Amino acid sequence: MEEIEITSWLTLDAIKKEATIIETIGDLQTAHCMAVFCIIEDDYFELCYSDSISNFMRRFEDREEFELGLEKRKEEFGEAIFEEDLDIETDYSSVNSDDIEDNHSKNSDIF
Questions:
Q1: Over the stretch 55-90, which tens digit does the pLDDT of each residue have?
Q2: What are the domain boundaries of the chain?
Q3: DSSP-assigned letters across all residues of the chain
Q4: Is the distance from CB of 93 to CB of 79 less than 8 angstroms?
């Protein structure tokens, strides 16, 4: 893994514009840092925007290292997927909108 400091958000934006964005973690509106994980050709990058520390660009050696870096950053930002979250998504994935409307109609008759 290689890392370089980048002083300007404009430079990070120019790099991001040319990349395929995989995932964005964090938000500068609610936190002090935002990490953008992206791919340019065969290279894997993390672009880190910050209003409190130095901005940087990190290049990962391969896809495996990239995915590990992504998971680590999610844990740092508190955005990691927990097993309970997966169960909730699975439980609701089989419900379609017609079932919700039918159930709502039945419940509205009660009131």
A1: 999 999 999 999 999 999 999 887 655 444 444 444
A2: 2-105
A3: -EEEE---HHHHHHHHHTSEEEEEEE-TTTSSEEEEEEEETTEEEEEEEESSS--EEEEESSHHHHHHHHHHHHHHHT-PPPHHHHHHHHHHHT--HHHHHHHHHHHHHH-
A4: no
